[in-house]
Amino acid sequence: MTDTMRAVVLGEPGPVSRLTLTDLPVPDPPPGWVRLRVKAFGLNRSELHTRLGLSEGVTFPRVPGIEAVGLVDAAPGTDLRPGRQAAAILGGMGRVFDGGYAEYTVVPRAAVIPFRSSLPWHVLGAVPETLQTAYGSLTTGLDLRSGQTLLVRGGTSALGFAAAAVAKDLGATVLATTRRRDRLRTLSEHGVDHPLLDDGSVAGQVRTAHPDGVDAALELVGVPTLPDTLAATRVHGTVCFAGMLSNQWIIPDYPIAYLPRGVRLTAYSGGAADLPRPSCSGSSTTSRPAG
After folding, report:
1. 127: exposed, middle or buried (C-beta count within 10 Å: 0-12, 13-18, 19+)?
2. Which of 54, 176, 216, 289 is spaced 20 to 30 A from 77 at the CA atom?
3. Alpha helices, H only, the chain
4. How confident is residue 269, by pLDDT bands cut at 50, 70 and 90?
5. Region class of 92: left (phi > 0), else alpha (psi between -120 and 50), else beta
6. pTM for the full model?
7. For the segment 208-235, what is each residue's pLDDT rounded down to a tens digit?
């Protein structure tokens, strides 16, 4: 192993030009931390917020990236051995300490999930944080049950597609939105039961098909569409705020009238410990172990 690595460094908040490809020393993991040889990393809206200076607790310069997948390279004082496939997500990655936009990253053991999979690295790189948020939002945030109806606001985002797939696996009927007419078919092809064209107001469309409103709704766009998403949800239904595609998540002058009568509003964020547990010891992401 060489002494240096390539990494993307954000010197300070600002435009994309503030991100530079740089040679850095390969970091050494302290006891209880894991050095991951990065094979792929996901691109998340969170990293856009960091680059724009909207994320809290970030110091600069910083290597961004809230997730990465690869091979354990060193893990002193932990149960992990070199060569193990693993994913690292959150826990301060890309904010409090350097993240996944590098050839090596060092993270706490608690932020690492070992796994076995024969899926290609570029596919695995997009899985951890998206799956964690989709699964956690639907289970912890919404307590979604088989036979219920779910509205996904922001259905053609990566998280929207993942949420629709998980919801279908849970036995729900899925409605999902897109602002582009040419993507309605794409939603259908990804298992969405009722694709909806989002012109800023979809509550009427939802209630045409479901007069009482949906049982649950996942808000991925943010503050601009939240009132309409709430209006599409039945009394005693739940809306989970889990995404900010609009880059707006603060509600100014929050009035009691903002919430419809009897509709619950929750939020969700999680970490490595919130990924779904394997069904049995040693189970893998796919049916075949990695070669």
Report:
1. buried
2. 289
3. 45-51, 121-124, 128-136, 158-170, 184-189, 203-209, 226-231
4. confident
5. left
6. 0.85
7. 999 999 999 999 999 999 999 999 999 9
Cα separation, 79 vs 81, in Å, equals 7
Chain segment 20-79, per-residue pLDDT in tens = 999 999 999 999 999 999 999 999 988 998 998 888 889 999 999 999 999 999 999 999
Q: Provide the CA 94 distance to its chain's centre, in angstroms.
A: 15
Cα–Cα separations (whole angstroms), residue 271 to 91, 201, 236: 7, 32, 28
- Is residue 176 helix, strand or coil? strand
Q: Which amino acid is at 134?
A: A
Is residue 85 within 8 A of residue 106, CB to CB? The reply is no
15 pLDDT more than 60 = yes
Residue with tokens 């959150």: 90
Q: β-strand 33-40 against 67-74: which pairing, if any?
A: antiparallel
Q: Give CA separation, 200 vs 57, 103, 217, 224, in Å.
A: 33, 41, 15, 8
Alpha-helical runs (H) found in 147-269: 158-170, 184-189, 203-209, 226-231
CB 135 within 8 A of CB 277: no
Three-state DSSP at 140 gives helix
Cβ(138)–Cβ(220) under 8 Å?
A: no
